[in-house]
Design goal:
With about 70 residues, this protein is an alpha+beta fold. It has one helix spanning about 50-60; strands at about 10-20, 25-30, 40-45. It has a 3-stranded antiparallel β-sheet with strand order 1-2-3, covered by helices on one side.
């Protein structure tokens, strides 16, 4: 369920993976309140409010692909 339905804002529960899709990094996001089957691949611009989840992902996966931009 969205945190803010009017602005379509959801809470990231956890980042599960990262991969390059058409030259752009995308992260597999598990959304709060949704099952793992509904996790979605999201671009960096959709993760501006997920700094803690990204930090935890890279702490657990130090060799994973990283963006050049600071997250």
């Amino acid at each position: 369920p969205p945190v803010n339905a009017k602005k379509n804002i959801y809470t990231v529960q956890k980042i599960l993976d990262v991969k390059r899709i058409r030259g752009q990094l995308k992260w597999l996001v598990l959304w709060e309140g949704y099952p793992r089957e509904e996790a979605t691949w999201e671009p960096e611009k959709h993760l501006k409010n997920a700094k803690e989840a990204l930090a935890n992902f890279y702490k657990d996966n130090p060799t994973a692909l990283r963006s050049i931009m600071k997250t």
